[in-house]
Structures
1.
Amino acid sequence: DLQICQHRAPTCCTKKMEESYQAAVRRERTQSIQALNFELKYMIVGHITAFQEAFESLLRFAENRTSSLFETAYRPMAKEAAEPVKELFTDISLYILGAETTVESAVLRFFDSLFPLVYSRLINPGITDLSEDYTECLRLTRQDINPFGHYSKNMVTELSKSLWASRMLSQALSLGIEVINTTEHTALTKECSRALVKMQYCPHCQGLTLIRPCVGYCLNVMRGCLASVSELDAQWREFISTLEYLTNEMAASHELEIALAGIWNSINEAILHAQLNGPQLSATVDKVCGQPKQQEGNLSSANIVPVKEVTETQTFVMAHTSLNNKRREFINYMKRSRTFYASIAERLCDGDLVMRDSSTCWNGEDVV
């Protein structure tokens, strides 16, 4: 009553053993593919982590630099500006990691929060009553009167351009992991599991436990079993080319590092612009939001303190170099995996599974 290992000679197999063999080949095939995938997956996961650490390091550096700008040049509003600064960099981090947000919304939300502080602490430092309604009116007015000139829009443009490749790379790496995980759990067809049993275990039914499959026979069986997986070859090659393009885009321009390091300067220029146009802004705000309570003898606009660039570059250079090295290592490794899905059958037939350097092997029917 054997269905797979039918043979003229007497056999030591039963139908139940054939069923056990089918379960065994399914388990072994999944384990073999997982073992092949492990190195590739390990490298991608490792680089996702390394990229994220390098991004976070650059973001922390840029955030610290921005915070120190407020503490040194705009002390009256430093404490209240801390939260909007933190939110801005959290939003940028989430954007890079693929969250459903935009650079524009993050930057404009920051300037919406910043304007009430600039207006009440720098342009009109005598304001004592900054109610919720008045603050909200200032936030909404910011969008109409554009107190920060072209600096807010320039910041959106610079960051959008430079963060795009980082966001795409982060999403592409996650997609790569998803593809690999999916191929590990590809179900074997009934024909495939029978062919694998015939190749690996039918010799056992004749007592031939040391004979292994012939190389050509193994390749034919594996290629048939993994036809759906090897169909990924063209798309996988395209995926590697896209990764190469993204990493080259990032490495060639250094825009990410420059844009992040320059955030503090864009904010500084924007605040200076608002201060210089203080009287016109006050006149417009008074019409739209009304006049808030002020202290006697209104203090004139706070002294404008232009900030010279801080020479705190060591951390930035280290994070920048680290990111570049990781890009280079990663893409070199991924280029070597270009034929990963095309050669999966060959790699599964390599090693202990087939008989090498021997005159005898199993061809599916007999020892040859």
2.
Amino acid sequence: TARRWALDICELRKPWIKSLYKTDKLEPLGEAREILKFARAQARKQAANLEHPLVCIDVIEEGIISGPRAGLWKEANAFQSLLFSDTCKSLLHVFFSQRATSKVPGATDLGLMPRKITKVAILGGGLMGSGIATAMILSNYPVLLKEVNEKFLNAGIDRIKANLQSRVRKGKMTEERYEKALSLVTGALGYEKFKEVDLVIEAVIENVKLKQQIFADLEKYCPSHCILATNTSTIDLNLIGEKTKSQDRIVGAHFFSPAHVMPLLEIVRTQHTSAQVVVDLLDVGKRIKKTPIVVGNCTGFAVNRMFFPYTQSALLFVDYGMDVYKIDRACTKFGMPMG
């Protein structure tokens, strides 16, 4: 059909339309300029330090004002200059780094298959616990949420509801999907139902003694294959698992707040953590649409380890008497959303 069509055009039986010069879909120049002005403002707001979205808009504008051929020339030249920019090199680095996260020497190269995780328990329904629970139910994992009393448990479930309702309001989720997701959460005040879970994520306050007690309890109540994970951001995992005999299945699953939104997940392994547990958590991380990175059990793991000098240098300027707001503005302008 395509060949026939080409011959028909060649033999003038079908009209010859040069698509490059079709302008019937373009708004009048004044209107087009307003649209482009709005697009530029949006691009600056979304990515203040990126040049290429603005270059794309410039190219479109050139095509509208000076004609399609001029637009194509500008596109070719602009592409060539962007190709050698630092931003381009950095974005390529990010692209390949994200893909490299799934290859972990000593874990993913052993031919292990991830085990099926059918039920997840989360200890603590605070900001982190409820966020992790939300991320899990959004990917259809049934969740058992444990709290110390009825009041805290209800507050945790209310936080999960609020997280889901926010998605409904933004049009990312239907009411029907909301009801289905919420039905995957079960509340608990004790450990009775923990005998049927495959993964536990502890998300209580950063208190060593409390975490040690929790992990000693988990070892008693959970099945022997169950992965025992902690969402700690600062505490040594060997210390957390000190009072257990299950150090091969203790692992860090460090989410970032808000846990159902932020894409990063640090999987922290100690020298005892089994490769199978790492492979299982990498699989869960991908299923809940996170970018999992496997890191060692050291002070600050990976993210806070990078964050320490960032905050230290800011505080050093404060000690030298610099205006706090000025430092904060510099950080924000550089691209750190929290300043």
